[in-house]
Amino acid sequence: MAMRRVASTAARAITSPSSLVFTRDLQASPGPKKIVGVFYKANEYAEMNPNFLGCAENALGIREWLESKGHQYIVTPDKEGPDCELEKHIPDLHVLISTPFHPAYVTAERIKKAKNLQLLLTAGIGSDHVDLKAAAAAGLTVAEVTGSNTVSVAEDELMRILILVRNFLPGHHQVINGEWNVAAIAHRAYDLEGKTVGTVGAGRIGRLLLQRLKPFNCNLLYHDRLKMDSELENQIGAKFEEDLDKMLSKCDIVVINMPLTEKTKGMFDKERIAKLKKGVLIVNNARGAIMDTQAVVDACNSGHIAGYSGDVWYPQPAPKDHPWRYMPNQAMTPHISGTTIDAQLRYAAGTKDMLDRYFKGEDFPAENYIVKDGELAPQYR
User: Fold this and answer.
1) How many Cα atoms within 13 Å fall on the side-chain side of residue 286?
2) Quick check: pTM over 0.90?
3) What are the CA-CA distances from residue 234 to residues 203, 238, 256 (Å)?
């Protein structure tokens, strides 16, 4: 049984020299479970679309199903600080569901307090809001709905590339402000055709982006820990670059498509950004903390980065004084790329499926695991 395997994992964690000091008996008990979901509040928008499932009000559309099975389902947007609503439920919850768009940061301290916690689910993709090493050491399972919003994010990245290349936003702002100055836009607007685009990371999202860029007749490069097979490379028309910095020096446009890990945090610092072409465009829908915040601001101010666009920040939600809000030539948005209505339908269905498997003691699809049996998924190691 899956739950017995979790219990044995906890036992191994106690004897592991690298484990944290806190452990607990994770043998699943029969009966109802307490499930807490953390989602953004939609207010008046919650009723505007019946498929708007990713908000606190609609709670992934699984409340009736969970409660019909006798489980308790608590949903809140309040996740920060010692007096927040989430903190009140940490000691006795069994399952915590969160999203990358309104992440509940699950620290080692919270894991230590959560004596009944067994399962951390990400409704979407990206579980870096969880202290994964602490989760592994405590024998927890961390899983996400892999593939649920890859199309959504890849499409959004393509849009952002075009917005930056064509210098779209200043023109749009002219219309809003009642202005008409073609020269102010045209002096830094280009075609995408013929430009060199490199993706740092070529997993599901990176590959989809490269496939969508092929019709634009770009020079496509990619850097990843794994090389694609030759047939797929030929189909996409992308070239593998083993040396990241060499690839970056060739790129007119750089797209970030890697997970946030200890190795990638702050990876694009002042020194690495200096190696990029002057006038480079950067799109980052991966994670904000991959970039050195001030280094990006300084490079945008100097013009070394000619345009920066993305929807990921650190922390999230971004505070009002976050410097990326005010740097020149940015096309930033709140974290929206992976939470289209189509994506919400997919990750809501995926979350329900995993909860159903959890209640039955069944394994999840292998690709959905981020932490299992004390081991981190390869992309997070």
Assistant:
1) 28
2) no
3) 16, 7, 22
Annotation says 344 is catalytic:
no
* Binding-site residues from annotation for substrate: 125, 149
Q: Which region holds residue 302: left if phi is over 0, alpha if psi is between -120 and 50, else beta?
A: alpha
- 81/83 Cα distance (integer angstroms): 6
Could you list the residues known to form a binding site for NAD(+), using ranges: 150, 204-205, 224, 259-263, 285, 311, 335-338
Q: Binding site: what residues are annotated? A: 125, 149-150, 204-205, 224, 259-263, 285, 311, 335-338
Side chain identity at residue 348, one-letter code: A
Nearest to 38 by CA among 59, 22, 21: 59
Active site residue: 118, 284, 316, 329, which one? 316
Catalytic-role residue among 118, 335, 344, 368: 335
Using one digit for the tens of pLDDT, what is the confidence trace for 152-197?
999 999 999 999 999 999 999 999 999 999 999 999 999 999 999 9
Whether 20 has a pLDDT exceeding 90, the answer reads: no
- Least Cα distance to 120 among 93, 146, 101, 147 occurs for 93
CA angle, 372 then 115 then 60, to 5°: 65
Catalytic residue among 71, 102, 287, 346: 287
110 is catalytic: no
Q: What is the pLDDT of residues 234-252, one digit of tens each?
A: 999 999 999 999 999 999 9
